[in-house]
Amino acid sequence: MNIEFLIWSGSRKESFGPIGFGKAISAGWITTEVKNGVSLVVRKAKLVEDKARHELKQIKEGMHNLDTKTIGNLKKRKWINEISVKALIVSKGANFNENLSKPELDLTTEMISTGSWRNKNFKKYNFEAMGIIPQSGHLHPLLKVRAEFRDIFFQMGFSEMPTNKFVESSFWNFDALFQPQQHPARDSHDTFFLTEPAISTEFPKDYVERVKKVHSEGGYGSLGYKYDWNIKEAQKNLLRTHTTAVSARQLYSLAKKGFVPTKMFSIDRVFRNETLDATHLAEFHQVEGVVAEKNLSLAHVIGLFTEFFRKCGIENLRFKPTYNPYTEPSMEIFAYHQGLKKWVEIGNSGMFRPEMLLPMGLPDNVCVAGFGLSLERPTMIRYGISNIRELFGHKIDLQMVYNNPICRLDVKE
């Protein structure tokens, strides 16, 4: 730049530009003077060196030793851009291997039998990782609760009765229990009768005669029902309406062998011609317990029931007097359902009548208490299910079966 002096008339911005004039002043290239009332721009430096060009040349040639202030000025003037470049240095590690192989996850039977596991590279076991859920079947909640009930019965000294007769005769299902042949429960509106085979013919004759007599004439301190008992009605086959038919068979067998105190239970399916709703099914499971002992009282029975349900985790119980043809006194058992917010009947109980026990051949001083409850309703209470059809039947959600945990009736959440 060849500048000796220039007249500065105040239009320096137009002549030189604000940036150029300011930079020239700050670099010491020029200065301003006033002579004879005239403002002049006078050359100050003999040699003008363009530092910005030199700095840009250094950057272009890869020399990055400029200070932060210089780089900031160049960036501010938009002459350079800063770009970050990351570089990785790759080197051999301790486990470097040119022969790559996928580590084995499982030790198989084949590896053990062939010995190939010796040459395998196994992945280290992570003890904090979630385990793989095995692909297998899952127990239905009813089966889980059933298993708990069985354990409780066994803990209380009960033995299990055989329940493999779904088809039963009316004699063992009704007549042996001192239930009259005109009883509404024996109507087709409440019971599923079979058409093939329609009847059973094999019964203990002497026992049948004693049952016939106590129904039609009375006996053992009872007046009976005073009607003509018909063997044809007793022969009709049906789907058992309760497992008390099993209890009747077992008590008769106990009387024949010679009485000993006993406690028995059964858990299996029964069938009734019910109207389906949130708490009733036509096919359901009945849990039944029978206790035979000399001079057994109702207080003993209530204590037994209370202990049984306490072990089941159900402590909020009520007992209500009721009528059953074959028990006297009789009680209904209720438990409070938190989901339904009401008391739900979960069982029936009572002392078997002498008209049922004495024709079997049991001693006069033997008392037998029986109680029955459905398996479904305690399961509903335990799992918080409000509709029984969501628990049992063709409409259940299989994911519910998969998700529900193992049931512990005596553990409160």
What is the molecular shape? Answer: elongated
Assigned CATH superfamily of the largest domain? Bira Bifunctional Protein, Domain 2
C-alpha-based Rg, rounded? 48 Å
Q: Please identify the structural class as seen in this structure.
A: alpha+beta
Q: How helical, in percent, are the residues?
A: 25-40%
| Major sheet characteristics | 7 strands, mixed
What's the CATH architecture name of the largest domain? 2-Layer Sandwich
Number of domains: 2
Please report the first level of CATH classification, the CATH class of the largest domain.
Alpha Beta
What do we call the CATH topology of the largest domain? BirA Bifunctional Protein, domain 2
Q: How many DSSP helices?
A: 14
CA-CA gap between termini: 93 Å
Widest sheet: strand ordering:
4-7-8-12-11-10-9
The stretches of 5 or more residues where confidence is low (pLDDT under 50) are 1-5, 9-14
Element order: H for helix, E for strand: EHHEEHHHHEEHHHEHEEHEEEHEHH
Q: Tell me what portion of residues adopts beta-strand conformation.
A: 15-25%
Q: Please state the average pLDDT score.
A: 84
Subcellular location: Cytoplasm
Enzyme class: ligase
Protein name: phenylalanine--tRNA ligase
Catalytic activity: tRNA(Phe) + L-phenylalanine + ATP = L-phenylalanyl-tRNA(Phe) + AMP + diphosphate + H(+)
